[in-house]
Design a protein that fits this description.
Number of helices: 8
Radius of gyration: 17 Å
Distance between the termini: 44 Å
CATH architecture: Alpha-Beta Barrel
Structural class: alpha/beta
CATH superfamily: Aldolase class I
Low-confidence stretches: 1-20
Bound molecules: 4-methyl-5-hydroxyethylthiazole phosphate, magnesium ion
CATH class: Alpha Beta
CATH topology: TIM Barrel
C-alpha cells in the first residue's frame, strides 16, 4: 500500500536512542507558534536562538491551520535543522523529513512510523502509568509523561501526574508546568529530558533572553544529575 514500509520492519531494539551522557538530563525546548506570535517572533528566528543556546532536541508545536505561510516557515526550519520534531502532523513531518511527536488522539505510533520512516525520531505523549506502559511497546524513540505540574499552555490538560517515578525501557521526557525553580525536583522522576514551552520566555521576551534562558536551563540541568 503506497509503497510504505510494513510495521514489522520497525524492530523495537533499533529504536532506543539514549543520550551521549547517561545520567545527564537535557532540555527539550518546544517552540509554540501561538506563543511566538504573541511575542512577535518568527519560527525560524526562535529556532535559530534555541540552537544557538545549545538545544539539541527541539519541537515545533503548531495548533492552528497549516496554511502556506506556516508550511514555508516549517520548510525553512527543516533546512536549518533536519532532526527537528514536529507536533501532531505525520504528513508534514514526512514531507520535510522531520521527526514527529504524537499525542494520544493523533495517528497511532505504528501508523505514524510507517509514514515518517524507520529513522526519523518519533515520540508520544502519555498522561498516566497505563498509557506509559502501552506506549513502551510502540515503535517510538521516547515517551513524554505529563503534565508534571499544572500548565496554562495546553488546552484541556490531563490531570497532573506529579513527581512520580516512572519505569520505562525508553527515554522519558517530563513535560508540563516545569520551571527553572521546580526543574531539579523533576529530575528525581527518572527522566532524560525536560520539555518546556512557556517558562523559557521571560521579560523582556526577546530572542536574546530566550536564547540566554535556554543556556541557563542547560547549565542547571547539566549540573544536576538525575
Ligand atoms: N503536554 C502536556 S503539558 C503540555 C503539553 C504540550 C504543555 C507544556 O507547556 P508548559 O508551558 O511548559 O507548561
Ligand atoms: Mg497532538
Amino acid at each position: 500500500m503506497l509503497g510504505l514500509p510494513k510495521t514489522e520492519d520497525f524492530s523495537l531494539g533499533r529504536l532506543r536512542q539514549s543520550g551521549p551522557h547517561p545520567g545527564v538530563v537535557s532540555l527539550y525546548p518546544i517552540l509554540d507558534t501561538a506563543l511566538l506570535a504573541r511575542h512577535g517572533h518568527s519560527l525560524l528566528d526562535a529556532l535559530e536562538a534555541a540552537i544557538d543556546g545549545g538545544a539539541d532536541w527541539i519541537q515545533v508545536r503548531h495548533k492552528a491551520d497549516f496554511d502556506r505561510d506556516v508550511v514555508q516557515a516549517l520548510e525553512a526550519c527543516a533546512k536549518r535543522k533536519q532532526d527537528l520534531i514536529l507536533n501532531d502532523r505525520a504528513d508534514y513531518a514526512a514531507l520535510f523529513g522531520l521527526g514527529l511527536h504524537v499525542g494520544q488522539d493523533d495517528l497511532p505510533p505504528i501508523e505514524a512510523r510507517r509514514i515518517i520512516g524507520p529513522t526519523a525520531r518519533l515520540g508520544i505523549s502519555t498522561h498516566n502509568a497505563q498509557q506509559l506502559e502501552a506506549a513502551s511497546v510502540e515503535p517510538v524513540n521516547y515517551i513524554a509523561i505529563g503534565p508534571v505540574f499544572a500548565t496554562q499552555t495546553k488546552d484541556n490538560p490531563d490531570p497532573v501526574v506529579g513527581l512520580q517515578r516512572f519505569q520505562c525501557r525508553l527515554p522519558l521526557v517530563g513535560i508540563g508546568g516545569i520551571t527553572l525553580e521546580n526543574a531539579p525536583s523533576v529530575l528525581a522522576m527518572g527522566i532524560e529530558k525536560v520539555a518546556v514551552i512557556s517558562a523559557l520566555w521571560q521579560p523582556p521576551y526577546t530572542l536574546k533572553s530566550f536564547r540566554n534562558n535556554i543556556e541557563r536551563w542547560q547549565h542547571l540541568l547539566n549540573s544536576s544529575r538525575a
